[in-house]
Design brief:
3 copies of one chain form a homotrimer. The first copy, chain A, has 364 residues and is α+β, with helices and mostly antiparallel strands. Chain A has 6 helices and 17 strands. Chain A is globular and about 75 Å long.
Chain lengths: 364, 364, 364
């Protein structure tokens, strides 16, 4: 029996990509990857690639093409043994670099390798670099100070959404939708009325709104209570959306007792947090939406974390139908031009950064 | 931010249409469109077009392209406020002519318009004209005398069927299928045996059968009881199917005590009704089937209306699998010629009227 | 009304077929075809063809194209009357040769015929010849001696699997997968370690393994008990896989008390059986998997037959996800070369026979 010798190469970034390949994307949470003997790996499609994730003997994360070089079975149906990934079909033992380690009664040295993807585990997430491994630079990973500070608590979840990841970027960079999509929780009429400002600072797009002397919507009444402040206070409210490549949106949100400085007010008179959104493409028309909230009040209150997660999960689920149906409409009308209003500037500017990054890596 | 200025045009009728565009189709029942503040609109695809239906402040029906000119969200996910349709994503307020009325903090005068579709609400239905609005003529709407008379009662329902609407026309214009598909309710051997006659009178195709001295099948035993006649009577039975453009089939059906004149017998010795079928294309291979029955006996008996609706709904559901599986077979064998027997003449002639109407509007 | 006169021809075998057309395939079990007046026929796609199966007045099986020549309805929605298949739409009566027998009030002599497929009922199965009827030769049907002997018992089932039938052939001609896919029932480490031998004898591919002095895995502990032997015996175990065209795999499996001659040991000291696999293509990427087990111990023990069927059904269901996901992976990577190791030789040689048969019938 002859053995195939071709070594699979990383696919070059084609002109059809709608995302940068050379960037760190959130692939899963740390908790999604089990540790230890017999642990089940995780199969997930990221940026068009089917990937299998698992932890080796030291608990380090490995990410490989989800394709056994023997007969093409998905390695994600296998299991971890002695820190190696074992194919669940015929027992091929795969190493974390994509080289076959062993196979019962076989010489494996000329087996073709499979792609391995650089990963970093940090901030409670596993990050993957779907592009050229040679260019994978840990320094380029998004820095999240709140994730390293004991003053902050974080809770979040994951939704699988059937739309282009950029529609979610648009969604989050234009919060006027809160008044309509989330009328019962965080929406309020004053959002529409407050002037919106969009600016680009280096590789970051910022869209922000400040509302002064308003009443707090239901979600923020809960926030005020959590921060030990009267829930019926008149407040100053802010929303500062920050887009960073490849597809992360961090939104500083909060309310302060009115007239105390708003966003700049002392911690004792405000409830503030960061809405955390990692938006990872799966295919051209679907994505993984890692949503969550980091807060720097009552950081030790685990019950509050759960309450917020539940509330936020419900709110974010309200976007799903809208975005998926919007996607369907756009697929039916590929040539229809959409409006680009001032409120859309955040999304428009973010897409410009995305397009620039894609062009640059295609030129490189 | 620049604004798109293109005004969307009605799509010209392409050669691929299998239905006339310039005609009145039933889009929904009046009851499907809620009235008043906050009412949810109805999204439905008609003749290939995604349409949103709602009632304005005076309760008048409006029908628009289900596509918000801002970002392409479906307007059918929005709500009605002050008689206008509000997009549920970012609050764009759309007018019933397809022009944006307002949007929070925006100038909307140069927003692109969206298509509006002429509608008429009559006979308990909302009718839509999917073609050229300039040619929409209320006089062309199918006149239904029974729907305006207090001597008649009507009950019906709606099925969504995955087949070309013309297969349903064929089905209804050849009632020999009753003997096989509806053996337990309205089928009887004498249908097959009675000679069928098909004629074309102007724009109407008529297929008819008369059966004399037969026993009544279960459905008509119920009809005789409802009309206060002995259910085990020997009867004369008739079926007169009338096709009218674009895709309506009205079937006069009934039984009379035998020898009393049959179809022409006095009301006191017969039970008769009209099977009402509005067959509205959704796509090339699916349609909305509005079925019902109008009867001119016991018109005040609401319980009987319910009983008949339930019975008819059950009978018509028996056609669904057959038609959908027939469609699948035909799609697999697009070049196979089908037979055109005398019993198929009703469907064949109806399709000739349809084809002629399509050719004429494409030539126009 | 004119009548179509075209007679449908058997489709010539195109280059796209991945299976031989001129061969006997298992279509269904005898039990799947009801007998008698009003019996429902069975619709099933075999080798790309939609076929309707039923029994005529004498209980003989007929197989026809599942397409009524009248309007294309599936004949499988009809029923059997007076030994003929009656279309459930308009009552066309079809004969077992594909010629219309009658239709209410119609002359049918010029109706087009539909394809009929040669069938044989034998061994509890209905076999179909999807290719040229002229070449259908009963002598070519796979001979199954165990199915005709009172010393043997058989039990089995049917799975519908979404993968190329050849992936199932590969699966069954390389039993090293048992160690991984079926670790809890029939897998054991010694399978991997035993040398595998593959040979081709005429039109048969044989792959075999012998394991001496091993402990019996759970399934065979049950087999030993069933054969009246101590379940914790040290045993010699064998697996002899035989592939025959078009897609049948018979696997002689068993255990004997160690040192008594293994496969050749006397019946009194062994438990042995034949794993029976008929793998019938449905489409290029799906198949019908008729699995079962024939055993020549305790042949009268019907309860044991049930126990084995249940156990085997559970084991074989473990292959489903693996094979279907493997298929998806291969569809995503059509150009990826797979390895052909010594353990894969059985599948590789079987595919060579398949390819040769396809080439020969295309040349013919």
């Amino acid at each position: 029996m002859q053995q195939a010798e071709a070594r699979t190469q990383p696919q070059t970034t084609g002109p059809q990509n709608t995302w940068p390949q050379n960037a760190w994307y959130v692939a899963c949470t740390s908790a999604e990857l089990a540790v230890g003997e017999g642990a089940k790996p995780l199969g997930r499609q990221i940026c068009g690639e089917r990937v299998v994730f698992y932890r080796d003997g030291e608990g380090r994360v490995a990410a490989l093409e989800d394709f056994c070089p023997h007969r093409g079975a998905p390695l994600s149906l296998g299991f971890v043994r002695d820190g190696h990934l074992v194919c669940g079909y015929h027992g091929l033992v795969m190493g974390c670099e994509g080289r076959t380690v062993s196979m019962p009664e076989q010489r494996v040295d000329r087996f073709p390798t499979i792609r391995r993807f650089p990963t970093i585990e940090r901030y409670g997430f596993v990050w993957i670099w779907p592009g050229d491994p040679e260019r994978a630079d840990p320094a380029k990973l998004h820095h999240l100070p709140w994730a390293e500070s004991p003053d902050w608590a974080y809770g979040g979840g994951l939704y699988h959404i059937q739309c282009d990841y950029r529609l979610m970027v648009d969604n989050l960079m234009d919060l006027t939708h809160e008044t309509y999509v989330h009328a019962g929780s965080i929406g309020q009429k004053e959002i529409d009325e407050a002037p919106v400002e969009t600016l680009v600072e280096g590789e970051e797009v910022i869209t922000r709104r400040f509302m002064e002397g308003v009443s707090a919507p239901p979600f923020w009444r809960m926030g005020l209570r959590g921060a030990g402040l009267p829930e019926d206070s008149v407040v100053d409210r802010w929303q500062i959306c920050r887009f960073n490549l490849p597809s992360h949106v961090m939104i500083e949100v909060g309310v302060a007792l009115t007239g105390q400085g708003g966003y700049a007010a002392d911690r004792s008179v405000k409830a503030s947090s960061i809405v955390v959104d990692f938006i990872t493409p799966e295919t051209e028309t679907s994505h993984w939406y890692f949503w969550g909230m980091a807060r720097n009040f009552a950081a030790d209150d685990a019950a509050l974390t759960d309450t917020i997660r539940e509330g936020q999960g419900k709110i974010f689920s309200e976007d799903l139908e809208m975005l998926e149906r919007q996607q369907q409409n756009l697929l039916r009308h590929p040539d229809r031009r959409l409006l680009k209003l001032n409120i859309d500037a955040g999304g428009v500017r973010s897409r410009m950064l995305i397009d620039k990054a894609i062009r640059e890596e295609q030129g490189a």
